[in-house]
Amino acid sequence: MHCRHISMHCHQLNSPYPAPAANMAVLPPSRRLTLILMAGCFLLQALSAHAITRHYKFNVVMRNMTRLCATKPILTVNGKFPGPTLYAREGDNVLVKVVNHVAHNVTIHWHGVRQIRTGWYDGPAYITQCPIQPGSSFLYNFTITGQRGTLLWHAHINWLRATIHGAIVILPKLGVPYPFPAPHKEAVIVLGEWWKEDTETVINQAMQLGVGPNISDSHIINGHPGPLSECASSQDGFKLNVENGKTYMLRIINAALNDDLFFKVAGHELIVVEVDAVYTKPFKTDTLLITPGQTTNVLLKANQSAGRYLLSVSPFMDAPVQVDNKTGTATLHYANTVSSAMASLTLIKPPPQNATPIVSKFAESLRSLNSKEYPAKVPQTIDHSLLLTIGVGVNPCPSCINKTRVVGTINNVTFIMPSTPILQAHYYNIPGVFTEDFPATPLHKFNYTGSGPKNLQTMNGTRVYRLPYNASVQVVLQDTGIISPESHPIHLHGFNFFVVGRGIGNYNRRTSPSTFNLIDPIERNTVGVPTGGWTAIRFRSDNPGVWFMHCHFEVHTSWGLKMAFVVDNGKRPSETLIPPPKDLPQC
Question: Membrane-spanning residues where (predicted)?
Fold first, then answer.
């Protein structure tokens, strides 16, 4: 009998009580077979408790896609948009061979994967690696350590992640249940943006002119604008099929370039159980807010009458900044509906674009599970304390249309991408690539959430902040009002962090810490800093290497709203960055 047949019977044969010792020779044949099957089950389970190696191949290729009445070629992985879902279990080793068949340089970032000691495979171009050049390949090799839930992968060079992206689903170790009722089925839902134009052309033209780029033409759900978009029929777009009385887990990802997004399902409540591959205390809501790079797992109970119900994705922006106001849609279909084409469609009204109270309530509802199995290990003391102002500035640009260029800035430093990856320069002690003088606090104090100083010019540089191994770090991210205050989704590579506090206005180092939650703050890898406000995060620098931190609005990253931490090795081999792989791409 094959193992797969044995495994089918394991749940029937496994008993919580030990079987009595028996002489196989005197047992009847049926009993002997049962014991053999049980032995096979125990062996199978013992073997399966160990992690395995999972192999994937990502071919980066061009494909023609038609959306919004127009066809254009886009960059894809394996010809799919969104790209293929990468499945693994906690503890698995993952090998992904990325082969570049297009004319663009490419890298892939495994967004939210801790990459313990394996920073060579993190993916941001010129931070940890040279890009994979046309006709070349690179084998990404990393282990999923202490994580389970939903993350995402995406290109990490220029604006290629507009179409090169997909889900990462990390299942718990075999035999380990979810800390909530197991769903009947699961579904991946990837939210994004669609441009009729080529996105590389969009950003290149904007950078040449020194102005903001054109906004997208629609929001999309699993690659489609949905049944209510132009040129669409009532049957177009993603469909989620459900059965009445059953519970479904939706793994929702914001893969958009530049928009925070609301997500709703007509007629249904959502129970949040996880964000950024970290379990939460469950709470009910009818509206999710997900920033670019964030993920949210929710339980949906199919408890409505037969018919079709609209899913909607729409933008959040509470500042005078132009965004794509098109609502992307999809449909939830109940089984046994007489005719899906004729069934009534229950609509839903998206939240107002500037619905700040909904966003604040959602952010304040998020709490780490903080159970015995999944504790929240919040640093209670601080070794390194940083105050980082985030926003924009204006620098001279003789060739630009207004003779100036809008730039992104952290502590008035506009980050300049190097031509040699910082991780290689750090590992091989290559001089002249970066400097270690990134300021821990603003060099010039001002009313951060006011109109800003008269001089809006920034400093340029490839500056990093150095951290010793295993230090406890607090970073206060302070929005500025220069040109306009705006929310910023800040993503830190290589770490999860705890969001211990947030507020509106300027952070006050004497009074603001009294509002911190140091018991069960949410733990994640990307956080939305509120418009005209601040967010405080804490993490432990227990991962040696070079780790990018940047705004996940791609336009702000292009403008220079980014920096990097260099984390030293510890004293033990298990606290040391591994050597670079032999096939590491060359610039």
Answer: none
Q: Which helix (H) or strand (E) holds 479?
A: strand 472-479
For 333-378, give the secondary structure using H, E and C.
EECCCCCCCCCCEECCCCCCCCCHHHHHHHHHHCEECCCCCCCCCC
Give every CB contact of residue 312 below 8 A, 6+ residues apart in sequence. Answer: 262, 263, 264, 265, 266, 327, 328, 329, 348, 350
Q: At what angle do helices 29-48 and 3-13 cross, to 10 degrees?
A: 100
Q: Provide the token pair at 336.
A: 């046994």
Give the neighbor-by-neighbor strand order of the sheet with 464-467.
464-467, 562-567, 545-551, 488-492, 526-529
Cα dihedral 113, 195, 356, 269 in deg (nearest 10): -70
The pLDDT, as a whole number, for residue 41 is 47
| Average of per-residue pLDDT values in the chain | 92
Q: Specify the pTM.
A: 0.91
Question: Could you read off the pLDDT of 86-101 as tens digits, one per residue?
Answer: 999 999 999 999 999 9
How far apart are the C-alpha atoms of 211 and 119, rounded to whole Å? 34
Q: Report phi then psi at 162, rounded to 5.
A: -55, -35
On the question of pLDDT at 42 being above 60, the answer is: no
Residue ranges and CATH numbers for the domains of the chain are 49-176 (2.60.40.420), 180-366 (2.60.40.420), 384-575 (2.60.40.420)
- Sequence-ordered list of residues with C-beta below 8 angstroms from that of 423, at least 6 positions apart, any chain: 119, 120, 127, 128, 129, 545, 546
